[in-house]
Amino acid sequence: MSLSFERFQETLQGAGLLGAFPPDSLPSLVQFSQKMLDWNKSLNLTRWTQDEDFLRYHLLDSAYAVPLAKDLLPGPARWLDLGTGCGFPGVVLAAADPHREVALLDSVAKKTKALDDCLQGTGWKAQTLTGRAEDLGRDPMAREALDGVSARAVADLPVVLEYALPLLRVGGYLVNWMTADQLSEEASAQGALETLQGRIVQRVPYSLPGLSQPRVLLVVEKLGKTPEAFPRAVGVPSKKPL
Ligand code: SAH
Predict the structure, then answer these.
(1) From the CB of 85, is ligand 1 less than 6 Å away?
(2) Using CB atoms within 10 A as the burial measure, which of 4, 143, 189, 191 is most buried?
(3) Residue identifier of the C-alpha nearest atom 3 of ligand 1
């Protein structure tokens, strides 16, 4: 068995998301997924190893952000998928818009190496970066250079804010995937939002088929320049969250 094009198409249709994708992006996403499922047999990169799980928790869960990303940044945009793991949600954002440049950042080299292989032949404007968000945020070439950052299952909200906001230009957006029980993190993120000049501007609820717990795409806008002191050194944001 391997993940089929028909199942993918049917799943997107069932969620009302099929129209958000150019038709020719779908075969490349299926091809990417089949390769990643293969890599996973030897490298153990994702816990979703069954086709149906991969379809639901990686492809579909990422696809819910496609209409939102287009609304937020309709023109050609530079995105970064922070803590991309085996490519999600970044590759889905890259596939859905041929003009969107997506950098796929992860600190674990075996993940970005597998990603490089799976990206071959897709035609997407996607490229991998191996490194830590804290280092990238201090790199003058990357700091305040991005229009959008996506993050799923990377860290608690205050930590994700310290990773992501330094990388965004003023007026850029972070989209952070949250489960309903993570929404309480919003309260603990008020200090980080103030310090880093971010504001929550949208909460987009959605749910995955077969799961009762609602999920939310949390959108944070960057309102002003990030103070020089942030991000702090590697490891500090997660050890001592703002
Ligand atoms: N976004 C993917 C992976 C989530 S696991 C998904 O939803 O499936 C979190 C990933 O973030 C891991 O692969 C980890 O290596 C990476 N990561 C965590 N902290 C990071 C940091 N500070 N800089 C870069 N990558 C980081």
Answers:
(1) yes
(2) 189
(3) 85
Give me the pLDDT at residue 189, please.
Answer: 95
Cβ neighbours of residue 60 closer than 8 Å, sequence gap 6 or more: 11, 12, 15, 17, 208, 209
Measure the CA–CA gap between 177 and 52, rounded to whole angstroms.
Answer: 20
- Residue 101: which of 119, 80, 82, 123 has the closest Cα? 80
CA-to-CA distance for 112 and 53, rounded, in angstroms? Answer: 21
Extract the tokens encoding 114: 């597998």
Residue 18 CA, ligand 1 centroid: distance in Å = 27
Kindly report the pTM of this predicted structure.
Answer: 0.96
Contact 48 CB / ligand 1 (< 6 Å):
no
112 or 211: which leads in pLDDT: 112
Strands 215-222 and 198-206 come out as antiparallel
109 lines ligand 1 (CB under 6 A): no
The 215-222 sheet, strands edge to edge: 126-130, 101-106, 78-82, 146-152, 168-179, 215-222, 198-206
